[in-house]
Every structure is written in structure tokens, then in C-alpha cells.
Amino acid sequence: MNVVVCVKQIPDPAAPASLDPSFNLDRSGKLILDEADTYGVEMALQLVDAAGGGEVTIVSMGSAADVAGLRTALAMGAAKAVIVSDDGLRGTDALGTAKVLAAVIRRDLPDLVLCATESSDGYTGTLPVQLAELLGLPSITFAKAVRIADGTVRVDRQTEAGYDEVSAPLPAVVTVTAGVVEPRYASFKGIMAAKSKPVEILSVADLGLAGEVGSAGARQAITSVEAAEARQAGEKHVDDGDGAQKIVEFLESLKVL
Ligand SMILES: Cc1cc2nc3c(=O)[nH]c(=O)nc-3n(C[C@H](O)[C@H](O)[C@H](O)COP(=O)(O)OP(=O)(O)OC[C@H]3O[C@@H](n4cnc5c(N)ncnc54)[C@H](O)[C@@H]3O)c2cc1C
């Protein structure tokens, strides 16, 4: 059973974020594995273990100047990583990113592709379904549990009311939520082993996508950015014996009662 996990390397959320002149997140500094993607890596490792064979491959698009985030996934137990890194990718939008990842994954189609539901930095939450469409594969989103049996992936799909049981034939693309599994900490042995695991760096030309991605191929552009409105302080009421009445009046004013 071979599983590809798409992971994004993001600027350290502990450091102050900054935008470049085109309003894109400045990713020129230290990059780490998006925590949202650690769940996909863990899920993939557990599925491969349960299948009794196969491997986990990490696929990413972004700067390869720092691959510490990919090494984290390799230290957890993934076998190898592929990153597409190219100046020609500047300005690539979500669909362009999906085209790049699809071109990598198509070279050696796995049994399953895992993504997180959405990234933690600048997120659209649209990439995994675009990827599935481009690969011509079924997709299931918001997985809170994933099982594989008899060439089928069975997913408990999180909903507002609980969960739905959904299945699809393999190969498929599945997005996992943060609750799907508890990501392991890399062991010292894992960290040492990750140093010699292969990280393949590809260019846009390697994938035959010149002209289709980058700002030239983008259909989305960030035209302005505004600071989010600061939260106003809430109203304080002291319960002088009429607290319950005040709550009822407030809820009535919102028309929820
Ligand atoms: C206007 C615009 C300009 C952009 N400019 C650039 C740029 O200059 N340089 C650049 O590198 N990117 C650029 N991007 C791409 C961006 O960084 C994201 O990779 C892309 O938008 C999809 O990420 P997301 O967070 O929206 O995906 P979401 O749909 O929120 O992410 C869900 C999951 O998809 C997978 N995923 C998302 N992004 C990647 C990725 N890059 N690699 C592997 N897996 C991934 C992960 O599993 C992730 O958890 C730009 C995007 C936009 C909209």
C-alpha cells in the first residue's frame, strides 16, 4: 500500500508574519512542517503499517531553500520526499498548486493521497478537491477516521451533527481533520535516519508545466489586504436577581427565542 501525503512548509507561526509587495506571505525565512499536515503523515504511516507493506511519500510545492519541514515528515517515518521548487512558481494560485502536485503524483500513482482539510497559514481549503479532479480520482473530505479494506477506503466524515460513513474505491484523495490520529514525535533514530532519506527537487520544466503555473497561469490574485477589525470588549451585566430575565431578553433580541 503506497500513500502520498501532500504537505505544506509554512513560516513558523511563532514568528511575526509579513507580506511581500504582492501581498503573498513572505516565506523566505525558516520553514516548518504545517502542523495540520502532521495528521496526514501519521495516518499514512498507520495505514501502511496495517497493510503490512508499502511506503509513504511526501509531496510538496514551495521553496526548497529550507526543507526542515520535509525532514520532520521523514523523521516520523515517511520513506522519501519530492518538492517542486522554482522561481517560475512565484504567484502560483491554488489551482496552479494543484496542477503542480497532480503532475508529481501522476508519475507514480499511489493507492491513496492524503491532505489536510486546510493549511494553517494562508489557506483556501480548496486544493485537495482540485487535486482529485485533476487526477480523475474520487475524493472524500473531513475524515475523522480512515480504514482501508478490499480496495476501498472507508471514512467517518465529520459533519456538524456527527459523522457520515462514506466509502470510495482506491485510488482516492482523502482530507483528514486534526482529530484523525495523534501524530507521533520523531524518535532520535528517526531524526538521524531522515538525514539520509531522499529529497527529490523538481522544476516546473521537469513537469512540463512551463507557462501553466506561476503568476502567468494564475486566475486568483490578492488585490488588497486589510487588518482584521479589532474585537470590541463585550458588555458586562451584574446579576441583581434579574440575570435570567436579562438573558431571555437578550436571546429574544437576537430572535433565537
Ligand atoms: C494569489 C496567490 C498567490 C500565490 N503565490 C504563491 C507563491 O508566490 N509561491 C508559492 O509557493 N505559492 C503561492 N501560492 C500558493 C499557496 O501558497 C498554496 O500552496 C496554495 O494556495 C494552496 O494552499 P492552500 O493553503 O490554499 O491549500 P488548502 O486547500 O488550504 O490546503 C489543504 C491541504 O492541501 C495541501 N497543500 C496545500 N498547499 C500545498 C503545497 N504548496 N504543497 C503541498 N501540499 C499542499 C496540504 O495537504 C494542505 O494541508 C499562491 C496562492 C494564491 C492564492
Give a structural overview.
With 257 residues, the protein is α/β, with parallel strands linked by helices. The chain has one domain (3-227): Rossmann fold (3-Layer(aba) Sandwich), CATH 3.40.50. Helix content is 26%, strand content 23%. The chain contains 6 helices and 11 strands. It has a 9-stranded mixed β-sheet with strand order 9-8-7-10-6-1-4-5-11, with helices on both faces. β7 (139-149) and β8 form a beta hairpin. The model has no long low-confidence stretch (mean pLDDT 94). Flavin-adenine dinucleotide is lined by residues 6-8, 24, 34, 36-37, 60-62, 89-94, 97, 101, 115-116, 118-119, 122-128, 220-222. Flavin-adenine dinucleotide binds at residues 6-8, 24, 34, 36-37, 60-62, 89-94, 97, 101, 115-116, 118-119, 122-128, 220-222.
Question: Concise description?
Answer:
This protein has 257 residues and is α/β, with parallel strands linked by helices.
What percent of residues adopt helix (DSSP H or I)?
25-40%
Q: Write down the CATH topology.
A: Rossmann fold
Number of helices: 6
Number of strands: 11
What's the order of the H and E elements?
A: EEEHEHEHEHEEEEHEH
CATH class assignment: Alpha Beta
Q: What ligands can be seen in this structure?
A: flavin-adenine dinucleotide
Kindly, what is the distance between the CA atoms of the first and last residues, rounded to a whole number of angstroms? 53 Å
Shape: globular
Oligomeric state, counting identical vs distinct chains: single chain
- If strands are numbered along the chain, what order do they take across the biggest sheet? 9-8-7-10-6-1-4-5-11
**How many independent structural domains?**
1
Structural class per helix/strand content?
alpha/beta
CATH architecture: 3-Layer(aba) Sandwich
What can be said about the biggest beta sheet?
Answer: 9 strands, mixed
CATH superfamily: HUPs
* Overall mean confidence score, pLDDT: 94
**Proportion of beta-strand residues:** 15-25%
**Parts with pLDDT < 50 across at least 5 consecutive residues:** none
| Global Rg | 21 Å
